[in-house]
Amino acid sequence: MSDPVAGMRAADVRRMTFDDNALLAVLYGNHDRNLVRIEQLANVQLAARGNQLAISGTPDDAVIAQKAISGLYERLKRGLSIEGADIDAAVRFARSGAEGGDAESIRTRKRTIQARTPGQRGYLAALRERDMVFALGPAGSGKTYLAVAMGVSLLLAGKVERIVLSRPAVEAGERLGFLPGDMKEKIDPYLRPLYDALHDMIPAEQIAHRMESGEIEIAPLAFMRGRTLAHCYVILDEAQNTTPMQMRMFLTRLGEGSRMVITGDPSQTDLPNNQKSGLNDAVETLSNVEGVRFVRLTSQDVVRHDLVTRIVDAYDARDKKAKG
After folding, report:
1. How do residues 173-209 score in pLDDT, each as one tens digit?
2. What is the pTM (predicted TM-score) of this model?
3. How far apart are CA 272 and CA 199, in angstroms?
4. Which of 95, 144, 303, 307 is deepest in the core (most CB within 10 A)?
5. Cβ atoms of residues 312 and 302 within 8 Å
6. Of 295, 252, 316, whose CA–CA distance to 136 is shortest?
7. Quick one: 315 and 220 in the same domain?
8. Using N-to-C axis directions, what is the helix angle for 59-77 and 21-28, rounded to 10°?
9. Smallest Cα–Cα separation from 240: which of 275, 262, 265?
10. The domain boundary residue, chosen from 68, 102, 136
11. What domain range includes position 197?
């Protein structure tokens, strides 16, 4: 963290005063690491003295830092914890001018999951309000993770009877028939991201029990034909790798009392021979259908390593240049 701001002009500095020194230690983090992170993200200098914090920077940056710090402090006062992702989220919301993401949260057995960006907050709102939601966006923007979290929350609350998670078994450069083992062993690698999300929200023994009872079902898209999915929460992940026929088949499985979430990244299609993606086809066909919500997440919603955001932006810029 920066040295104290002695000598700075008063007009350059915003000062904050806090009323709980115990919470202040948590807010600052070990060796002030949380303040260092805020300095980096908001492009400001911070100096702590007792229960006061001085913020130095341009007027806009100082306001962003102040809003982020205020939000984090209020979070601690409500008894919530602060992790690195919460610091990043607080600055994102402050920079966007939007309210913080705490209002849009999902409770699961193992954790409370919150929107980390304004885009994710809109996505969670759509998941609560609509029976069919398409989420389009780059890797790391939370499309699948938040959809699984919402499904788990509704299952635990008794609002749906089952969760059905599906993916097309299509990957770049490999086919199911070339993998060793029986059908389940061949399919599992394609469904691993869905397993990972579940394990982040439900204890492992409960997942095993619920899968045995049929409350949680994970299956490749090919197994969906002929079924009617009633009173359940259905997620189709990696939907950019469906064909238009597969997508039509899947969407028409929607039964009474069910919800569907379709997630995918249109820029990462692995279909052979430049075949048209069922996700792109659905966006074109259903754009004006009442009751269907399309949510478009961007690189600004990526919550993985900072480098992932820059990588996504670089590829998008290249693709736009090529099309132009």
Report:
1. 445 455 555 555 666 676 777 888 888 899 989 988 9
2. 0.76
3. 32
4. 144
5. yes
6. 295
7. yes
8. 120
9. 265
10. 102
11. 104-323
